[in-house]
């Protein structure tokens, strides 16, 4: 059967499809045989992950390109480049993306985090009702992955927040029971002109971090994924949990964005970064260069 990645480094989507049709059990076989990392942090002593779970929530924009992540072959090729760079410890994604990467042979020795709740589709009336439509703790464990990630948007005016809080608390507990990382990405959110917007004021980021820290019956394996704002010291002082920085949207001034990240990475409580579109779709198109710059900060 044709390899999913050809010698030129491009992804053969037709080969991926053939494997899914003719040998669907191959995915479980590869997961069982995968070399797993010894721990969560790599050579830098911190954790550097590439995020690739946007598409399952219908969020396809990167920079000025509305459907950038809608081209699966292009996204997989960029993920392959990013995961091949020294210092990149792993990836965060939904089952469809992670299974493609498994078939490509790109997950050996990598920290793999399964994305759990993708039901709050971008731009919908039910966006805050962020149901668990992806991985659960049992599936993360069965696949030999290192943890699960959940998005927790708290809208004080939307009753659907309560169900999401409850579901995230249960997921944290179930991951902790299995000794797996629970990566929680919290925000205080509001609807502005009908669309959900995250409040990145210092007070709101602190509040969201404290709520996320208290989820579940154990926080022993909980890590927070927090946005980078101008004044991070009070935010980091609000929790004793390990913090991963959220890379966020593609910035027009990438040098300024990188400088901000570098400053915050100096805090020992910050244990790494989770970056998606900013690395996969940099303004100059140089994925390897963007990745290497961020790894150098670590």
Structure description:
This protein has one domain (13-297): TIM Barrel (Alpha-Beta Barrel), CATH 3.20.20.70. The chain starts with 12 loop residues before the first helix and ends with a helix. It has an 8-stranded parallel beta barrel with strand order 1-2-3-4-5-7-8-9, surrounded by 5 helices. The longest helix has 18 residues, at 160-177. The protein has 298 residues and is of the alpha/beta class. The chain is 36% helix and 19% strand. Strand 4, helix 6 and strand 5 (181-192) form a beta-alpha-beta unit. The chain is built from 11 helices and 9 strands. The chain has helices spanning 13-22, 26-33, 72-84, 95-104, 137-142, 160-177, 202-213, 233-236, 254-265, 277-280, 287-297, and strands at 47-52, 90-93, 111-115, 147-154, 181-192, 195-199, 222-227, 243-246, 270-275. It is globular and about 50 Å long.
């Amino acid at each position: 059967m044709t390899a999913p990645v050809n010698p030129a480094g491009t992804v053969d989507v037709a080969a991926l499809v053939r494997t899914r049709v003719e040998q669907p059990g191959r995915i479980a076989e590869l997961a069982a045989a995968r070399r797993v990392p010894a721990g969560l942090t790599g050579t830098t002593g911190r954790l550097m992950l590439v995020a690739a779970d946007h598409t399952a929530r219908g969020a396809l924009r990167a920079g000025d390109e509305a459907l950038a992540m809608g081209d699966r072959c292009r996204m997989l090729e960029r993920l392959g480049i990013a995961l091949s760079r020294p210092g990149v410890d792993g990836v965060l994604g939904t089952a469809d993306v992670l299974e493609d990467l498994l078939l490509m042979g790109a997950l050996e020795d990598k920290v793999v985090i399964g994305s759990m709740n993708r039901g709050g589709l971008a731009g919908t009336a039910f966006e805050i009702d962020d149901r668990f439509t992806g991985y659960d703790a049992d599936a993360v464990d069965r696949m030999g992955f290192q943890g699960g990630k959940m998005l927790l948007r708290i809208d004080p005016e939307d009753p659907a927040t309560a169900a999401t809080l409850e579901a995230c608390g249960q997921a944290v507990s179930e991951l902790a029971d299995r000794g797996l990382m629970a990566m929680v990405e919290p925000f205080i959110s509001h609807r502005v002109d009908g669309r959900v917007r995250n409040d990145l004021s210092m007070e709101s980021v602190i509040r969201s971090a404290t709520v996320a820290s208290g989820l579940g019956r154990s926080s022993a394996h909980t890590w927070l994924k927090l946005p980078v704002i101008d004044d991070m010291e009070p935010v980091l002082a609000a929790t004793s949990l390990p913090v991963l920085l959220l890379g966020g949207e593609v910035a027009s001034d990438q040098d300024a964005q990188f400088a901000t990240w570098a400053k915050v990475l100096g805090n020992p409580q910050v244990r790494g970064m989770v970056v998606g579109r900013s690395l996969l779709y940099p303004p100059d198109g140089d994925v390897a260069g963007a990745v290497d710059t961020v790894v150098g900060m670590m």
